[in-house]
Design brief:
Length: 185
Amino acid sequence: MASTATTATRELKYDGFSILLHWLTALLVAALWLLGQSLSFFPKGAPRLSALGVHMLLGMLVGAVILVRIVWRSSGGRHLPAADEGVLNLVAKGAHYGLYLLLVLTVGFGVARAWVHGVPVFDWFKFHRPGFATPSIIHTISELHSDLADILVIVAGLHAAAALMHHYVMHDSVLRRMLPRKRSE
Ligand code: HEM
């Protein structure tokens, strides 16, 4: 039978599936941003198209992960009490909802960017460039995808900095509750 201390620790953790989805999202966003920034370093032609293919597949994977996360959060996922109070709580909530919104928009404009450019995803399928894709529409959509990705990474960085501050400055359990369980817990 679990001891009282073990039970208390368990109650302060997110469930395993939420933790997995959280770190998978973080890893994919970091990889996507870095790959997006490095695309122009790949030689033109097949190498760059392959790198872009990987970028688009990972981008669509992160889109699927976000959808699963939203469904899980509003159904079986564990909800924990707010980590902050007052204004800080509002800022943290705003950052969390903002991150969901930025993720959805970045992925949405990524797909739109691939569509208006008519890009192939390896030999598997091709986005067919629509008739309305004028140079100015292509430019606007490309800029939006790029700017949203940058804002997403900045907000995610602030979110990570806040978690590290909780851990190293305030010495509370906010970061630990999103970390995988140790065997002893
Ligand atoms: C969270 C998800 C994503 C992030 C963080 C991200 C990030 C980036 C970044 C940083 C760039 C380079 C921007 C620039 O310098 O212009 C880029 C380019 C691009 N991304 Fe994404 N992206 C994501 C999802 C997607 C998705 C889902 C697709 C399409 C299925 C996609 C398609 C593209 C395309 C077509 C380019 C332009 C490549 C080029 O023409 O050089 N992205 N992305």
